[in-house]
Write a structure and sequence with these properties.
The chain is mostly beta strands. The protein is globular, with a radius of gyration of 13 Å.
């Protein structure tokens, strides 16, 4: 059974950087050949794919967020991280990490992030 758990701040000020971490158990993020993704859902809106990291460490990002986003991993801790720079109130959302490339079979419970001064 794969389990994912997001962690990070629940409040970030505009123009700051949001850093979120996803801790994974039940699978190795570096050796099991899976892709790991970040997805968000703004209030009242649908899911939005942010980006993913592959088993070799390669990354792909949503074109609309690419200039502000970095995804990396710490294989020793079996964690992968999301960094979103220069946040605005439009980045307020529930942020999820998930296992998968385009479809996702395991999800974290999500973490609510509010961008506000």
């Amino acid at each position: 059974q794969v389990q994912l758990q997001e962690s990070g701040p629940d409040l970030v000020k505009p123009s700051q950087t949001l850093d979120l971490r996803c801790s994974v158990s039940g699978a190795s993020i570096a050796t099991d050949g899976y892709y790991w993704s970040w997805i968000r859902q703004p209030p009242g809106k649908g899911l939005e794919w942010i980006g993913r990291i592959g088993p070799s460490g390669t990354t792909d990002y949503s074109p609309s967020l690419k200039s502000r986003t970095s995804i990396s991993r710490d294989s020793s801790k079996n964690q992968f991280t999301l960094q979103l720079r220069s946040v605005t109130p439009a980045d307020t959302a529930a942020y999820y990490c998930a296992k998968g490339f385009f479809t996702y079979d395991y999800w974290g419970q999500g973490t609510q992030v509010t961008v506000s001064s």
